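On clarity, I found the account of how folds are encoded harder to follow than it need be. Since the whole study asks how a given chain folds, the encoding of that fold should be made plain. For the editor and my fellow referees, an illustration may be useful. An entry of this sort, consisting of the sequence and the corresponding backbone structure tokens, reads as follows:

:::
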Amino acid sequence: MASRIRMATGIAKSILSISSPGTSLTQSLATNAQLTRDVNAYAAEVVAAHPTRFGFFACVPFSDDVTDDAATAAAQQAEIAYALDVLRADGIALLSNNRGIYLGDPRLRSVLEELDRRRAPVFLHPSIGCCGSPSKVSSSYKEGYEQSSPLANVYRAPLFEFFFDSGRAVLDLLMSGTATRFPKVRWVVSHCGNVLPSLFDRMFLVLRLGQRFTTVRDPLNVTEDQLKAAIQEQLWFDLAGEPVPNQIDALLKFTTKDRLVFGSDVPWTPFEVTKGLVARIERDLPECIGIDAVDDVWEGTARKLFNRKP
């Protein structure tokens, strides 16, 4: 499959990752951990067989049926160490929520502490929103979507629910103080910032009004300047979807062009559609960011972000 899109678009190397619903498909931590290990090992085998054409982001296991949170954290940290040190993954992939656990949740702090220590890139891919507590979340992806969206029986999740949940995840990351707490994690947000450009000003307004961000958690005392710094220094944005010209123009009001990396969403975006999207990016991107920055978006920024040699 990759060779087809490579021939059609000139894409030389792809970073593989698992999309929603990820590898935590059961209520059993042991089962999810084994599936995660198998998926990561397979990705590493693909990279070993085609090292000039592929890299990969590794998954970590989650579960909603473990009373000992320490066991889940230990399994996650063990997989991070194995994936980065043994399998040589390019980074870690997290979903916008993992069985109802969003990025500001204290249960993720031990994982993020380890990723922060390693200065790891983390690719954030959207999933369906998750209603209620994790213990009440259906293990069925379809049922979970029906619970989270009043229009689930009309529209498929990628149309807009994915954008909403990505925005929800990043706002939680910022407003909970988690990004400030772990400043060395390098976040790659999918789909050119999704709905975030429409929400950042709202976040700043609430902060200026002096209103508490949360009703349950006790977040760090983050300031507007800290949040703006986190957006500009800790977040990168891929260009999967339809980024030019409108979406990228909105995003660049809050970040800089050196934070943009190419993304295609193949194979979930079909090859022929992707070919057209790439052609439109090639045509319109120079006007959006300037011709001098285009090569960095295609390749240069990703090489720096993932510490890759030419």
The chain has one domain: 13-238. The CA atoms of residues 240 and 263 lie 4 Å apart. The first strand starts at residue 14 and ends at 16. Strands lie at 14-16, 54-58, 91-95, 121-125, 186-189, 235-238, 260-261.
